[in-house]
Fold this protein.
Amino acid sequence: MEKKAKKITFEDALEELETIASKLESGELTLEQSIQFYEKGVELAKFCRQKLEEAERKIEVLQKQPDGTIQKKSVKVKEDTGEIEDDEDIQGSLL
Amino acid sequence: MIEEIENNETVYSVSDITGILKQLIESTPQLNGVWVKGEISNLTYHSSGHIYFSLKDEGAVIQAVFFKHANKHLDFKLEEGMSVVVFGGVTVFEKRGSYQFIVYKIRKEGLGELLQKIEKLKEQLYKEGLFAPERKKPLPALPRRIGVVTSPTGAAIRDIIKVAMRRFPNIEIILAPAKVQGQGAVESIVTGIRELNNPEWEVDVIIAGRGGGSFEDLMAFNEEPVVRAFAGSKVPIISAVGHQIDHPLSDLAADVAAPTPSAAAEIAVPVKAELVAAIETHTKRMLRRLAMMVESFANRITLITRRRVFQNPMSLVENYELTLADIENRLQSLMQKRITGTKERLSRVKDLELIIKNRLQNYWHIFMMNASKLEHLSPVSVLKRGYSITLKDSQVVSSVRKIHKGDVIRVIVYDGSMQCDVQSVSSEVGFGKKG
């Protein structure tokens, strides 16, 4: 069950959440079914919120190392302009 | 208008002729939607924004107009004597009696061959199916990490970072730095796209491109290796090349084409607040509905408990008690009636006794009377009256047939009996005479 939940994508979860909300609103469900769907919906909403918070704000630049491998390097950016600070230290190409 | 003169020859007006000419010229395919090569002379940047010049070569000259709405995307300055290739068509200006070339696009000369080369490549890749709609991959609704292939110092990366972070504050961006123009740009872009396809970087969507520039500046995105790299990307890829008129071929090969890097970031990155709001909306919708349901059930329960039975449960029993009391009463009065009735009938039975006694006495009287009558019928009284009974061998003799002469018979009379011998037997009954 847990593994299955992890496999669904954000968009699937959001879509299912919407479907459940619509189903509930249709008024065709019994109280018991409604509670079941609601619980499922709450789970999906939780999953969606988690997904939204999964990413950690960061900007990285790939850089070619002296040994030829490629590594990522975190950089700072200026919030207002989106400009990468110290961009002179950054290689302009992976070649 | 057309007038008839004596020898029946048609006479046209100047407008007629010019009209026919205009129609003829403007409907001729070779004169419209064509590229024309020439040298600029008599160049005028008019204050209205229109550009006027003559286009000439060794043998001819043609007037040309580059209207404001068409020339606003021009990314270089026209100069006297400049060799150019213009795109447009010939039109007739009736008032002046002149024809001129209306310009839609201008390229510096030398680009013509390049354009042809691009057209050829486009056709070839199209035939190969590289631009086929069914090859297009959908973009993820929620990319966690965006890969960007562009120059680390250009406007493109700044715009992408700015827009992406504004829309989704905790977005992750990974840049594969690339040269986007000049020597080595093609290899650099191709390497960037390939590198970001490496699963190690966990990129959900790639934006590859650059800000606006001249036709030559954007040329790398028309080169076959770059176009193929776009088409071959396993990760969904957006072509983000700033352009005004011509789409670079990368636009056709990518999963999605954006007119600028900023637009690409808007396409790739969702607005987090909107997603949060959507989740909240759906949650609230569910909650509202459920609350409504629970409330309606609660109301029903309240209504039910308000009924008398639940307010005063004894009322349920009271009813039965009343019925029971009623039945009791009725039974009691019924019993009473029965008892009285029986008593009455019992007293009536005593009267009967008397009646029966009387009746019996009556019957006794009648019986006695009849008994005395019977007495007269007894044989004794019959014998008294002179009758006798004849017996033979103790048998009563009622007929002469059983008697023979010489038989001894017994004759019983009222007060005794006699032993007699039979002297004769006759069947005659003679009461008067003696036999």
Chain B is about 45% helix and 20% strand. The radius of gyration of chain B is 73 Å.
